[in-house]
């Protein structure tokens, strides 16, 4: 699955298994599975990394670190997604410097001591055959503050010297080195939501008059150079993503005559990022100004992923934002709007989203979420998927036989009662008539009893087949 696997083969039982949760049992069309799988469950290869499906956990700040260290909270929080079928989990905005964190409780990667715990988390993700990503971030004018829900206004962008700019770019490069040592498969640079890299892009926040401000070329310079310095440290076989706020959602107005950063600028920037070695743009929006007007609706940001994907040759895109339903997510992919879907709220509310999506889209997928329920390795994938279909069918057949048995028992009772009543009235009925009715009843009882024997045989055979199938699957 991943570009790097754990070096300790005994670390987790799951590592020994062929499938990870959320992987299609038969990911490609075959003789037994001629219809193409929903795109959501088809693997995606980006450079040296093959993702088992196209669903990612979008980065989510958890405010659960001290001094930047990941904790058991992060192990459980990140790990649970991979036990439930996500192909890629991108860890939260992670400060490349202490002053670049949003809050004192945000995750960091500015010193080597941070690596060890991150390594453990990555190892667990890999054990579940998922890929691990980390979002490298500097929060700029939103940094070193309180929790976001307490923040009332945006501070002005600080005038950073050229030295300071170089230092921050160096911090990103060093963070990439540490991410590599921790074993991450993907780096995502956070250039969205009004944080530092976005601050330089947006004319709303960027008021510089030097080579980093003013024209489009100048405003994108900081990000492009940062990408370049990260790419130098990040191996060629590992994917690099950039999250953009594709638009600021701020139209020209009295307060901002020129308006904010636009979709057209994002397309042009994405094309430059492609030539700098960026593989995927994760298409978010907003965060620069309280004047933003966001037309919130299901999938409201998807069209930006589609625009960049369509206009920038070879650039993959991720769609994110109010994608909450399996069919909706798969449609985004099937209709060519994006290459991956990033999920955030829905994963917090519905941890089994991926496994349920597999069921609702009719994809036999691995749901071996705990040791002991592994998909059998001695069965061919197609045999395993057929058994999975067969077992519920056998159960339904068994239920039907059960109700036939009940009806048969009721009929026998009725026949017995009729026979008794017939006997009681035998004195009043002429012998020939009584004789033929009695014979009919006797014949019916014999037939019912034969049916009963046949039913019993069928049930025994069904039980045997069920036991065999179950044993195969549990092996
Ligand atoms: C609790 C929480 C924390 C978030 N933290 C980050 C973050 O660290 N970096 C980031 O780029 N986006 C962050 N986001 C935004 C999400 O990644 C995502 O883009 C957004 O929630 C929209 O997706 P959704 O509609 O599936 O929730 C966060 C969202 C939530 C709900």
Explain this structure.
This protein has two domains: 348 residues, Alpha-Beta Barrel (TIM Barrel); 94 residues. Helices cover 43% and strands 11% of the residues. Strand 5, helix 3 and strand 6 form a beta-alpha-beta unit. The N terminus is likely disordered. The chain binds flavin mononucleotide. Flavin mononucleotide (FMN) binds next to strand 4 and helix 9. Its cofactor is FMN. This is NADH:flavin oxidoreductase/NADH oxidase N-terminal domain-containing protein.
> How many strand segments?
10
Q: Give the helix level as a range of percent.
A: 40-55%
Please name the CATH architecture of the largest domain: Alpha-Beta Barrel
Class from secondary-structure proportions: alpha/beta
- The termini sit apart by 23 Å
- Report Rg: 31 Å
Total DSSP helices: 12
**Small ligands present:** flavin mononucleotide
Write out the CATH superfamily name of the largest domain. Answer: Aldolase class I
Uncertain ranges: 1-16, 368-378
Strand order of the largest sheet: 3-4-5-6-7-8-9-10
InterPro entries: Aldolase_TIM (IPR013785), OxRdtase_FMN_N (IPR001155), Snapin/Pallidin/Snn1 (IPR028119), YqjM-like (IPR044152)
Pfam families: Oxidored_FMN, Snapin_Pallidin
GO molecular function, one term: NADP binding
Region (Disordered): 1-36
Keywords:
475 residues, alpha/beta, TIM Barrel, 2 domains, 8-stranded parallel barrel, two-stranded antiparallel sheet, 12 helices, elongated, binds flavin mononucleotide, YqjM-like, NADH:flavin oxidoreductase/NADH oxidase N-terminal domain-containing protein, NADP binding, oxidoreductase
